[in-house]
Amino acid sequence: MSSLLYRLGRFSAKYRWWVIAVWLVIVVAAGGIATARGGASNLEASYAIPGTPAQEALDVLGQRFPELSGASARIVVDAGDGADIADHSDVISTACEDLASLSAVKLVTCPFPMTASGSSASGSGDPSQISSDASMAFISVQLSSSTASNSVVAAAESAMKPVSDAGVKVAYSGLEATASSSSSTEYFGVGIAFLVLVITFGSFIAAGIPLITALLGVALASSAIYITASLAPVSQTAPLLATMLGLAVGIDYSLLITSRHRAQLRAGMNPRESVAVATATAGTAVVFAGITVMIALIGLSVAGIPFLTVMGLGAAVAVLGALAVAVTLLPALLAVFGGALRPRAPRRSRAVRTPKPPIWVRGVTAAPVAAIVLIIGLLGAAAIPAFGARLTLPDAGYDPPGSPARVAYDLLDEGFGPGFNGPLVITADISGTLDIEKALDALDAEFDGVANVAAVSKASPNEALDFAVLSVTPKSSPSSTATADLVSTLRDLAPAFEKENGFTFEVTGQTALGVDISARLSAALLPFGIVVVGLCLILLTIMFRSIAVPLSATVGYLLTVGGALGVTRLVFEMGFGASFIGVAKVGPVVSFMPILVMAVLFGLAMDYHVFLVSRMREQFFETGNARTAVLQGFSASARVVTAAALIMFSVFFSFVPGGSAAIQPIAFALAVGVLIDAFIVRMTFIPAVMALLGDRAWWVPKWLDRVLPNADIEGEVVQRMLRQRQWQSDDGSEEAGLWAEDLSVAGSTPASFRASERDVVIIGGDSAGGVVAAIAGRAADTAGNLSVQGRLIPFERSAVARESRFVPAVPDVPGGETVHERLRARIRESGHHRSERSALVAEAAETFDRLMVAVSDDLHSTIELTTLAGSLTDAQLWFLDVAAALAPSSRLVAIDATGKLPADAVLAVIVARARTDATLVVATTAGNAVTDRRVVTVTLSEHADTGMKGTRA
């Protein structure tokens, strides 16, 4: 990973203007497409979960009673305390008739008499739509579509304008324009983030770069979500969550890479090289952290809830965008500013002073047991309220006070009772009964006298007389526990009702749907938590090659989640400090808040854990002192992690004041969770645990260590490459054909040798074949230093492999090709022009004959170019491949001739037929070759020191 990121960072720095231009084109094009396809207007405000009882009943209702399939709205008219709304009956009736004439309106029910208009028939008015004190009334509007478009909202407001001009207060419920996906408070969070960056970097330029990259990443992710919304259902919450998360992680990821880049500039590294190294080292941790966040977000699909899956995917896209920007666009911007980002050199007295770790980390590592017990007790107590949390789907009562929908909600609550805003819909399939009137009477009588029922409407059949609908108005508010209990009570009545009447009923409506969704989400928390915790253990075990580190990280994550959810319930459900932060409504929180917070905090917790513990691991393997490693590793990363946590907190918390009911608790829980995780768990609890465990923190069973992949989170591969480049530069090995120092392949005995361009290198010994394969760029498992014609192995082995010809000891199994076709195919791979291939094939055929003669093969005279390669022995196939490798002009020819007898004769032919403009490397047990070229002989042994000598024959 680190070597790939190094090349990517180097490419972005080299072609910086092209990279910047491509990113700008992509962002602008995506924004243009999103706008052309409708942008935020395609987002949906409703939530649905297929398979729940309420949703299934709603689906049937839409099919059997299409008149009620569209959205319903209420327009509240309030004459004021002590006034009579009937005094304005004429203007209200006229407004009702105007509403009924709108093409998007199916039906209007007016509290006062109205004449026929549009799709609505004349009527004497419905007095039940007038409040008991006669000061207010409402108009029921049934739409033809499932949502109210902005044009419908504008037309309704125009129809109601005469009423408001008459001094009557008008409020709309269910006729709200599409919600905006942004808030001005976001800019405050971004401003705080910029201030933290300025303090951290001491530079306005360095502080501005992470903001630019984060905003571009969010813009791209938002456009992608809006484009998706034009093709499939997407919740209004999805772009808000993506914006919130994209800003936070985008700034943080850029901060970490930029911070590493500036530290390297301070040390004197070349700016362009520093960009590549920072992308490889800090970028590796960033990529891993981003992947963990995305896995957790995508893991929301475990719940089996479509809108939650879409939200998770949208947020994952935002994180992916932040990652892509951090490892491509950010390096390009850093390269543009070059040395201007170099920090000012500190005073000498400060430069030589070793920074002391903060006093609290020295304290917790000195008394780790006390610190661990205190933190577990504190966060355990904070988590207790989370176990009693109530969940709901937010309705208009959760909107900010003063908003149009909230005003209508409060007026209906005041004039008609708290349950009026959340009526339950009862549907019944009466197609199996012949006495329709009796069936309707049975439905009317079933719900009278049920506890917590305020009113029951008359059952109404559809046109086909095979389906009936009625509504039950609870006495309690839609989000109350009493209403959820009422839903269960009514459903419990259904079996007895069916036994008595021969048909049953279903309980549905938005309130019942919210109850079902909350129950489904609550049930999904445990399996999702198991998935997340399991991922935490697996990923961190791979990263740190330790058992204790992932276990402590998992415990810390659970403490973070528990504390964040507990504090959130105290504020949003129990009201502690709710007015101080502008909570829209104290009560149950949105149903998907806990599972979403668990997913996001998992990724963020792993971010901080990786950044801190990776430095501790690095220090431990350098010093061997566990406590010193904890203190030094903490000191090396605490400043950046502190800045990252403060930035994330600022961005998340900025979505709380003035935010929607769905976003407010999520943003608050994430903000609190970031503070808990960064400062209490990762920067206090984890150092205490690591200090308590000492050397045991890095123990892993040997069998597990062998099977775990190497994540290389500290960029060890790139650091090795930089050391080899320094070795290459210091020793001048870039000018040599071959230069090896302590080279070991797959654990072989180290070897050191040097050869110039066009030399013949003879390598003998137990590991000769592996060394030759490494020289040809065909082996990656190497240790030590190896430079091949100016290129470092294993980092540039692909380039070496392209420029060299290699013949392994065991030839490829032939297909149905002839000798001529095999030779021609091998020569074609060398890249020679078609016009040269016939001559090269002839030359290779002659070399093949000489090799066959050298081994006294009596059958060589019977092998023709038309002979099938499949009829040859392995030795003959190997001779054929050697001949094909020697014929073309190549900079390097590497041949593994181990086990090929007679070795001296085979080597003599190879050396004689090899081109003098190529470096020839042969693994063989033969002695020196007879040639006028310089011969370098290397002897490898598992039991003796490596020998190296050069001779000229």
UniProtKB/TrEMBL annotation:
Keywords (A to Z) from UniProt: Cell membrane, Membrane, Transmembrane, Transmembrane helix
Localisation per UniProt entry: Cell membrane
Species for this entry: Microbacterium halimionae
GO cellular component, one term: plasma membrane
UniProt cross-references to InterPro entries, sorted A to Z: MMPL_dom, Mycobact_MmpL, SSD
Membrane-crossing residue ranges in chain numbering: 187-207, 238-256, 277-307, 313-338, 359-384, 524-544, 551-572, 592-613, 634-656, 662-681
Pfam families per record: MMPL
Domain spans labelled SSD: 212-336
Membrane topology classification: Multi-pass membrane protein
Record's protein name: RND superfamily putative drug exporter
Keyword Ubl conjugation: no
